[in-house]
Design goal:
about 250 residues; alpha/beta; Nitrilase/N-carbamoyl-D-aminoacid amidohydrolase; six-stranded mixed β-sheet; about 25% helix; globular
């Protein structure tokens, strides 16, 4: 199985971002990828500021125009596609992720359980979390999502271990405080934390972060990794650039 981890560049223009996501899906399919994975909030960036007037318009209904566009691609190209989306349901906002199947349907939708995608004082009637880990069976094996901070919750890792999926889809959004793309800092001080958590999950994990300029969300630094069930890097993509990491498994 060839897997594509797409490090897309997120801008302030949602239409440009969606076009970039679509173009990368076609490029990945042309390269033979059967599974394509994008970061957390890949169409908008994680640019919410706890003001509902600003944040709710960022939300995408699921299903909705963006997911419908992606569903058409998965059906046309006969691929699986996983992507993080800020989801709006009524007047509620979720940090969600969806997995599309090759028949153009949503095979799995997951809402992040860890609440740290918004501030502590954010209105709980607007900024909401999921409450359940879900596993789906596909022709490629069983999949389960964790999003960003979920991976660092011991209780979720315990639940995850009981479900024993074949693959962990891990879209995330991460930046350094100074907005840099510091590969040395990542390699020496941060990457090992992610590998240790993947080791606890005991499942092959696909991690992917988008890249953005500092004015978007503080400057997410990109990067992607495929990590073995032993917490060892199978293949990785460097920080500071957009592109596609292909992994053959």
């Amino acid at each position: 199985m060839k897997v594509a981890l797409v490090v897309n560049r997120v801008t302030t223009d949602i239409n440009i971002n969606l076009s970039s996501v679509i173009n990368a899906a076609h490029e990945s399919a042309n390269a033979g990828a059967r599974l394509i994975i994008y970061p957390e909030a890949a169409i908008t960036g994680l640019i919410n500021n706890d003001d509902p007037a600003h944040d709710l318009p960022l939300g995408q209904p699921i299903p909705g125009p963006s997911t419908n566009a992606l569903a058409k691609i998965t059906k046309k190209r006969s691929i699986y596609l996983a992507i993080g989306i800020l989801e709006m349901e009524g007047n509620k906002l979720y940090d969600s992720a969806v997995l599309f199947s090759p028949n153009g349907e949503i095979a799995l939708k997951y809402r992040r359980i860890n609440p740290q995608w918004h501030g502590r004082k954010a209105d709980p009637n607007v900024y909401c979390q999921g409450n359940e880990l879900k596993k789906v069976k596909t022709a490629l094996g069983t999949f389960l999502f964790l999003i960003c901070g979920d991976l660092f919750e011991d209780s979720l890792i315990a639940q995850f271990s009981k479900l024993k999926p074949d693959w962990l889809l891990f879209p995330f959004a991460r930046c350094f405080n100074n907005g840099s793309y510091n590969q040395n800092l990542w390699d020496k001080a941060v990457k090992s934390e992610y590998l240790a958590r993947a080791r606890l999950a005991k499942t092959t994990t696909f991690m992917v972060n988008y890249i953005a300029d500092i004015e978007v969300d503080g400057g997410s630094f990109g990067g992607a990794m495929a990590v073995s069930e032993k917490g060892e890097i199978i293949k990785e993509f460097p920080l500071g650039k957009s592109g596609i990491l292909y992994v053959d498994l």
